[in-house]
Structure formats: C-alpha cells, structure tokens
Amino acid sequence: MELINFLIEHYYLSLPLLATIILLINATSKKGGTKISPQNLVALSNNETAFIVDLRDSEQFQNGHITGSINIPFLNLSNRTNEIPQDKSVILVCEMGNVSPNAGELLKKEGFKELLILKGGINEWRIQNLPLV
User: What would be the CATH architecture of the domain defined by 31-127?
Assistant: First the structure.
C-alpha cells in the first residue's frame, strides 16, 4: 500500500519509469523477428512457404528436430547464411526461444526480411506433444 501511495504522490517519477518499462518490453518482444506458435509453424511448413533453421548444436538436433528443418548451430550461423534462402520465410528454432532473437538480429543485418521465431522453442513444441524426427 505504501508503494502505491509513493507512486501516486510522485507521479512525475512513476510515469517515465512506466513508459520505459513498456518500451523495453515492446522492444524485447519484437527482437529478431515475429514470434509464432507451434501451430503457426505447422501451417507454414505444410504450405512449404517457410524454411526452418534449427539453431541448436548437432547433438541436440540429432536427438529430435522438426521435420524439414536444417541444423545450423547458432555459433556457425554467421558463416553459413548462404545456406538460407532469402525468398522464403525463415523460422528460427532453438531450445527455449531465447537464442532465436539474437540469430534473427544477425540475419536482419545480412539482409533477411521475413524472420519468424518459434515462441518457446523446441521445449514448447514438446510440451504440445508435436512430433520430432
């Protein structure tokens, strides 16, 4: 209760703080590309309008990956961007969804436009009981 009273009494400090927090959340949520659900990924891959890049290391990839995805570990991405077509949507997949935004930023600098990120990564894919190869 005291915190709320403080914030109200000092609104001239609270409003810029609130605006900064909102802008930070907004910028972070759009970093690297648009986040999509596993269901959206399935729809895009069924239409063959997307190219799925799995950013996990080779061992994780071999233990299970999304059908049709190619493995380009994040550490090798900058050297292997030529393997990714620029005429398709690129869906970036990692383990938990926290590496893909950084990969998306790297690919944006390389000129890629249509970048999508699997929200929650392979972990979310597994939670929803979707198949892995």
Answer: 3-Layer(aba) Sandwich (3.40)
- For 46-62, the pLDDT digits (tens) are 888 889 999 999 999 99
pTM of the predicted model as reported, rounded to 2 decimal places: 0.80
Q: Give the C-alpha distances (Å, rounded to integers) separating 67 from 61, 62, 64, 124.
A: 11, 12, 9, 16
Which of 85, 88, 95, 87 is closest to 118 using CA atoms? 95
- Between CA 41 and CA 122 the distance in angstroms is 12
CA angle 98, 102, 105 (to 5 degrees): 145
Angstrom distance (rounded) from CA 109 to CA 71: 20
- Cα–chain center distance at 34: 7
